[in-house]
Design brief:
The complex is a heterodimer. Chain A is mainly alpha-helical. Helix content of chain A is 74%, strand content 0%. In chain B, α2 runs antiparallel to α3. The relative contact order of chain B is 0.07.
Chain lengths: 106, 166
């Protein structure tokens, strides 16, 4: 099993990221507030980022960390646009409950 | 156990507990505060992995920018009330079962996989100097394109939050 500089096996990072991703997915499924859904999506993105940094460090490859940088940039843009959409929806429907905002459902 | 392993367990514990509290706390403001704690724990993981540049960027972008946006929107929409609609228990039960299956599948598939990676030279990986060189040589075009992405995001969010959309 690979050991890092700090002596932590890579498997631990895989399990940690899997657990964090699953917590985020659970939040998306059981919560109804749209803002909490955004936060859970951020959690899932961060789990993937952590795994990518761990792999890049264990492989000795710099490029994965550049990808993580770009993922952070896209996440920031996504949150800005998403929260603007949320404010507009709240202004029109006066709620952020995803069970009420079901006009796009067939 | 070395000191870095203790740090790893502590940071993982903090990250997972705070992530669970993000999902299960009723008040959205508490969720945001726990999410900030989770992000700090992840930044600690980056420092532990020798990725100093990403640790700094993570703190600046997430704790500095994104979380302020979240808090601002929550305060503006006045969502900080304790009474929040909850999903039906059957849906919650089904979700927990489904996510448990996902977790089981992930861990089981990683258990069989032996992580025998060829150890590259880890010296200088993740430092500001190395990442800056990669970013401005190989990845210069994506870097510039991401500035257009930010510009369009800025224009889009300003346009969306205008009062009278025509």
């Amino acid at each position: 099993m690979m050991q890092s500089i700090s002596g932590i096996p890579l498997n631990y990072y895989i399990y940690l990221s899997a657990a964090m991703f699953c917590i985020g997915a659970l939040g998306v499924m059981i919560r109804r507030n749209a803002i909490i859904l955004f936060m859970c999506i951020e959690l899932m993105l961060n789990a993937v980022n952590l795994l990518m940094v761990a792999f890049s460090q264990y492989l000795g490859d710099n490029n994965a960390q550049v990808f993580v940088f770009f993922i952070m940039a896209v996440a920031a843009a996504e949150v800005a646009v998403g929260l603007a959409i949320l404010i507009m929806i709240y202004r029109n429907a006066n709620t952020s409950d995803t069970e009420v905002l079901n006009q796009l459902k067939w | 156990m070395s000191i870095s392993q203790y740090v790893f367990w502590f940071l993982s514990f903090v990250a997972l507990i705070c992530a669970l509290m993000v999902v299960f706390s009723k008040n959205p403001v508490y969720s945001v505060l726990y999410l900030i704690l989770t992000f700090f724990a992840i930044a600690g993981h980056y420092v532990l992995l020798n990725a100093q540049f990403l640790a700094a960027v993570h703190i600046i972008v997430y704790a500095g920018a994104i979380m302020v946006l979240f808090l601002y929107v929550i305060m503006m929409l006045n969502l900080n009330k304790e009474t929040e609609p909850v999903k039906k228990p059957t849906i919650k039960f089904i979700s927990v079962i489904a996510i448990g299956m996902l977790m089981l599948t992930l861990t089981a598939s990683f258990k069989g996989a032996e992580t025998t990676l060829s150890a590259g030279s880890t010296a200088g990986i993740g430092t500001v100097e190395a990442l800056g060189k990669a970013l401005f040589n190989e990845f210069l075009l994506p870097f510039e394109v991401s500035s257009i992405l930010f510009l369009s995001a800025m224009v889009g969010s300003v346009y969306l939050s205008k009062k009278n959309l025509q």
